[in-house]
Amino acid sequence: MKATDYGPIPGSAILGGVSGKKAIVMAANIRIATVARGIFKAAKDTDSAVFMELARSESDLKGGHTGMTPHDFSEKMRDAAQATRFDIWALHADHITVKTGDATEINQTKQLIDAQVQAGYTSFAIDASHLFNFEGKTVRQELEPNIIATTELARFITAKMNGKPFGLEVEVGEIGRKDGHGLVLTKPEEAVEFIKALNENDVYPQVLAIANGSTHGHTYDANGNVVEQLSIDIPQTRAIAQALRDNNIKVGIAQHGITGTPRDLINLHFPKGDIIKGNVGTFWQDVVFNTFKIYEPALYKNIQDWTLEKYRPLNPGKKDRQIFDGNCKQAIKEFKKEIYAVGPDTNHAIESMAYAESLVFFRAFSSYGTASLVRNALK
Ligand SMILES: [Zn+2]
Q: Does pTM surpass 0.85?
């Protein structure tokens, strides 16, 4: 790869480059590609490394919620990087989710990974955290199905990448899972045991996603209003990072579900460096839809009507606002043509909003200067 083509670099180069620094690299889920230029421009102006990502639910061989296949997503992100001339970014497959671990699902997952590798992805997150043996007598036994599926898929990625370095994220503890007492959090010994088992299988992730009290998307009060998410358990997160260090495991933590978290809390209280990757997804969709409210009111109303008509019957008792909020991502594929056909004023507003919001994220994450760290490490 030439330094001048602004293509994605290995996720491992970014995560390795910031290792030991008190910084979090932002990973943005780009459900609507229009925000990408603003994010890249802010990354360039603040010298911040960044991940551009979509989860399996958002982008698969049929397009997912976003209507973008891995090939489409890759092309759009490369175009945006080229247009802004930004070089320190990774193209990441977020949540390659496995829910049953059966042969059919594993094979379909390999087809998706194959397409992602073909499309030039440089980083991958295997999420087999749903696989948990509740009858297991030891931590290792409980995690066994996750370890088996993660190992098989990681080996598949390694084979497909054919010697090229890549980023690898794995997940222990399903994010947002609740039992009778509330959110179920990952325990330090689970994190340690999981990585040790993977290492024994020659699988070496750089980053681990844990369940630490966050949920994906927005958090709501009893009336369906969006409220701040203050549930991330910072002491537990620190304890997991410390346990990994105590066992000589060089793996950082990926914080998922940041959208609802106040950025002043992140800025002042997040354990940066323990957390090395921060996923921001729904936030960028909000930037687009909030802009549409003013710039494209007719389109916004169509999106709203379609979403409510389709999802009201499936959500009895819920307020319209929450139904729209929770399901509007489903409308992106449906309205893809219209969303990408809006005028230059609308696109300019979206890009500018994405730019300004990215500045604030990069500052809150202390990621100013991380792009140079990575660039220098690559030399
Ligand atoms: Zn996530």
A: yes
